[in-house]
Design brief:
With 126 residues, the chain is mainly α. The protein is built from 6 helices and no strands.
């Protein structure tokens, strides 16, 4: 009964361990973002690896500076995984409205970070 949530926890832990071990702030360790390379625009995931690396090292401020949206997603995933592991129900039933809200928030984040107003949302060094 716990096999699936434990597998998800193991996969997430392995992913964070890999990003913690291989610093994405060092050029050449990971491929560049194709969206940024091709368009010059920061996609919603730009800075996500740097954010995960900072979180894996306990640096929440740097993680938020690298990609606040990714930190929010990591937190939501962690809460959902904790609920799954403890067999507690989700506090709400996801609906299409929630998906549209998440998509709108992602679009707003992406548009804002590519305008002068959103400069603080651009990952450092990008």
């Amino acid at each position: 009964m716990l096999a699936a949530p434990l597998a998800a926890l193991g996969a997430a832990a392995a992913a964070f361990a890999a990003v913690a071990a291989v610093d994405p702030n060092v050029p050449g360790r990971y491929p560049p973002c194709p969206v940024l390379s091709l368009t010059g625009l920061h996609c919603p995931a730009c800075g996500g690896l740097r954010s995960a690396h900072a979180l894996a090292h306990g640096d929440i401020v740097t993680a938020l500076g690298a990609n606040a949206l990714a930190v929010t997603a990591f937190l939501i995933f962690a809460v959902a995984l904790a609920l799954w592991l403890t067999h507690r129900p989700f506090p709400f039933t996801p609906t299409p409205r929630h998906a549209w809200t998440a998509a709108a928030a992602t679009a707003l984040f992406t548009i804002t970070r590519n305008t002068p107003l959103g400069t603080p949302l651009v990952p450092p060094g990008a």
